[in-house]
Specification:
Structural class: mainly alpha
Number of strands: 0
Order of helices and strands: HHHHHHHHHHH
Mean pLDDT: 80
Shape: flat
Low-confidence stretches: 1-8, 247-252
Number of helices: 11
Length: about 260
Amino acid sequence: MTDQESLNQQPLTEHLAELRSCLIISLTAAFVGFALAYSVIQPVADWFFAPLVQVMPEQKSLIFISYQEGFFFYLKLALVAGVLLASPVIFYQTWRFIAPGLYQHEKKALLPFTVVSSFCFLGGAAFGYLVIFPPTFRFLLGYSSNFLEPMPAVSEYFSLALFLLIAFGMIFELPVFMVFLAKLGKVDAPFLVKNRKYAVLIAFIVAAVITPTPDPVNQFLMAGPLVVLYEISIIAVRFFVKKPLAVLAKAEGDDAE
């Protein structure tokens, strides 16, 4: 009996019980991460604010314009940090729930995808924080003058910084996404090479849309990694995808017969 047949014979109640177990463990891990992050929230906030504080004029600081804004900012920041801390557990629980419904070759491929995608996302967020944040906020604050005094609000900075961190995290998932598509048989290395010029064009369009500043330097800092990641995707597809999953599934079915 194959894994898929075994799964089809399991009652719905077992699937729901498995889902509930994964959700409880994931939420518990996120809550523990939230509690740990909140216990050291001030150093976390100092780290989070550092790119903006470093380029702000002297004697200036962020402001909050409502009584509860500062309190809720710390809660939201602790929640985001807690989810990041708990992400290995959350990814593992997701894999544990999906794994029974996969073929054996798919189970072997999914866990490495999960681990690599986690590293890529965190690497992209780190790239955004270390490389993109300083010139971006320096540019945005460069319009201050005797008549324009910068007074950035906590909530606005949080929204923009979180958006950029998530955007760069997702951008750095490009090689993983391309390998996944190749595994499904949707693309291959020759296809990616043939469409390289369109990928470069799309990279600069995406950079123009996502980058919060109109200057070409910051847009190039966004588009450049996309182009490099596309080239890495071609190498990864060539190296890691020898046969699509559909071919492996057929071979596995023939062996079972």
